[in-house]
Specification:
This protein folds into two domains: 19-147 and 306-360, 3-Layer(aba) Sandwich (D-Maltodextrin-Binding Protein, domain 2), CATH 3.40.190.10; 149-304 and 392-436, 3-Layer(aba) Sandwich (D-Maltodextrin-Binding Protein, domain 2). It is 46% helix and 12% strand. The protein contains 20 helices and nine strands.
């Protein structure tokens, strides 16, 4: 349920660095995609690092949303003006790996080795690190803000309707009907629909999105998410819409306000909404639970997959600058920093040490349900179908999926027609990516 935040901002005092002092330091430019309160917290990481030593100066610079930041970094590299570190969202991984093949990326595992910094990849949560490793298990970029979708619920509405929080999709429908009968305007909703309703639905039920291990095994992959399980799942949601149990609220986090305002009783979206919900929800108690299981498809869940972003290091700078970049990334990975970040935002602590520290400090006991994301990611060792995805042009492909899903919600297409079209259009974009990067 809703509780107060356990962790405050880091206790390290921020020491102002004058222009003269900064000139004596080795500068590292860090481009990120986090605005608002999250951006302030990211800037604080840089300030804290700058304050604890006098050799390096990390400049934390906001570059717009995820797509804008990645696009700007690619353009900057071509112009020879690239930052040292750039934050890239998870669906940009295939694009960044293509850049790595062309010598543009300094793999994190190699960076740490060259810098002489102890770096144990086994200390990272498996469901997080597997997404960003190569086929040999080497980490290419540093996981930073990792999240996974959970089911957020309005505990007051559930209590008033006398229903339990659902654990299966059949129970989601039944609970929605009971909530609707009790006056809830729109019982069920979600955000980032490709990520939550197709990508994570598939991983949760150990169903591949495409061939060749969801793209991890190489190019030439073909999408397969027009399978019966996904089609039936999407059709079920469409039927819920016809019954007045589901209302579509937008492609990204646009429907957040529907949950915060009490219009929606169940909302599937990122665990990273926790910090904002603590600040913004004052009229009711809320909680988070595991994703529902489709018992027609599986007897038990496999694991969910992450969203969020990682930090990529770009080639083209001096050795002393890379030493500073490595030390900054090591600082970000410490248990203390990760525990503070996860506790104040809802992102997943990327290391087992950080999760253990949060447990020791009583965070999960004080804030029931906040370990849901960690539990989902750690349920089982990831399989080829639940490790994640690595498809080229996936930013554009998600737009295609969004268009096709919107045609279902509006009643213009059946789920079968939409998923078949999304696969056909998506495969065309995969072939274009391969042709451009061959």
């Amino acid at each position: 349920m809703k509780t107060k935040l356990f962790f405050a901002a880091t206790a390290v005092s921020v020491i102002a660095v004058t222009a003269a002092q900064a000139q004596d330091r080795v500068e590292i430019n860090f481009w990120h995609a986090m605005g608002g309160q999250l951006g302030e917290r990211v800037d604080q990481f840089a300030s804290d690092f700058n304050a604890m030593q006098d050799t390096y100066q990390v400049n934390s610079i906001y570059q717009g949303n995820y797509t804008e930041t990645m696009t700007t970094a690619v353009a900057a590299f071509r112009a020879g003006e690239q930052p040292h570190i750039v934050q890239v969202f998870e669906v940009g991984t295939a694009t960044m790996m293509s850049a790595a093949d062309n010598g543009a990326i300094y793999p994190v595992h190699q960076l740490m080795e060259d810098a002489g910094i102890e770096f144990d990849e086994a200390s990272y949560i498996s469901g997080v690190i597997s997404y960003y490793s190569d086929t040999e298990g080497n980490l290419l970029s540093l996981p930073f803000n990792s999240s996974t979708p959970v089911m957020w619920y309005n505990a007051d509405m559930f209590e008033a309707a006398g229903v339990e929080v659902p654990t299966t999709w059949d129970e989601v429908v039944e609970a929605s009907r009971a909530l609707k009968a009790n006056g809830v305007e729109s019982p069920f909703g979600f955000g980032w629909q490709s990520w939550t309703m197709i990508e994570n639905y598939s991983a949760w039920h150990n169903i591949p999105l495409g061939t060749m291990e969801n793209g991890f095994a190489g190019v030439g992959t073909e999408f397969t998410f027009n399978n019966d399980a996904v089609v039936n799942h999407i059709q079920r949601i469409a039927d819920m819409g016809e019954e007045g149990l589901f209302t579509y609220g937008g492609r990204r986090g646009d429907s957040r306000g529907m949950f915060v305002n009490g219009e929606v009783a169940m909302w599937i979206n990122s665990s990273a909404y926790y910090g904002g919900f603590v600040n913004d929800i004052t009229d009711f108690e809320f909680g988070q639970a595991m994703l529902p299981l489709d018992t027609d498809v599986a007897d038990a869940p496999q694991n969910s997959i992450i969203g969020g972003a990682t930090l990529w290091v770009l080639q083209g700078h001096e050795a002393d600058e890379y030493q500073g970049a490595a030390e900054f990334l090591a600082f970000l990975s410490t248990a203390e920093q990760q525990a503070d970040w996860a506790g104040s935002t809802g992102y997943v602590p990327i290391t087992t040490a950080a999760a253990d520290l949060m447990t020791e400090q009583g965070f999960f006991e004080e804030n029931p349900g906040t370990d849901t994301a960690i539990e989902q990611l750690s349920l089982n060792e990831p399989t080829p179908a639940s490790r994640g995805l690595r498809f080229g042009n996936f930013v554009q492909i998600r737009d295609v999926i969004n268009e096709e899903l919107e045609a279902v919600w509006s009643g213009d297409k059946t789920a079968r027609e939409a998923m078949d079209a999304a696969v056909e259009r998506g495969n065309d974009l995969l072939r274009r990516f391969e042709a451009a990067n061959s």
